[in-house]
Amino acid sequence: MDGVDLVNRDPNELNSHIKVNYEDVLAEPDGIRSFDCVWRCSYGCFNCGKNCVYKLMTTLCGLCIAFLWGCDFGCLAYHHVWCYTPYMREFAIGCGYLQKCFGTVINCCLAPICEACGMCFSKIHVQNSGK
């Protein structure tokens, strides 16, 4: 547990888009106001409800969900290391072979045609008439 930061629990700001503070959810516009005691009490009720439910849900489900996500990312890493990366290497090797075969076929079929065309067109002389 040495690597767990208990103060900054989102160092990479993965959840910076989640705005769940009272001020992010409830606001009274100018021109309309509730009683100050209602506003203060609603602040307390909101935070109490949010914190109690969050702590209850993380207590009941957090460990199991963290375990499942750990298993999921373990499987993902396994598939990439042992399946996808070797397959992509095999595919790249096969493509290199096909590239050589295709190049040889093109060279055998098109090179004589291009060479013949080059010889035919090399005999053409263009003269500009000076007007």
Note the main attributes of this structure.
single chain, 131 residues, mainly alpha, 2 helices, 0% strand, elongated, membrane, molecular adaptor activity, golgi apparatus
Distance between the termini: 91 Å
State the major sheet.
none
Separate helix tally: 2
The proportion of strand residues reads under 5%
Computed Rg: 35 Å
Which bin fits the share of residues in helices?
55-70%
Question: Mean pLDDT across all residues, rounded?
Answer: 93
> N-to-C SSE series?
HH
Principal-axes shape call: elongated
Poorly predicted segments: none
Helix/strand-derived category reads mainly alpha
Quaternary status of these chains? single chain
Strand segment count: 0
Protein name: Caveolin
Pfam families: Caveolin
Membrane topology: Peripheral membrane protein
Function: May act as a scaffolding protein within caveolar membranes. Interacts directly with G-protein alpha subunits and can functionally regulate their activity.
Walk me through the topology.
Layout: H1 22-25, H2 36-122
Describe the structure.
With 131 residues, the chain is mainly alpha-helical. It has helices at 22-25, 36-122. The longest helix is centred in the middle third of the chain and has 87 residues, at 36-122. The mean pLDDT is 93.
Could you give a short description of this structure?
With 131 residues, this protein is mainly alpha-helical. Helix content is 69%, strand content 0%. It is elongated, with a radius of gyration of 35 Å.
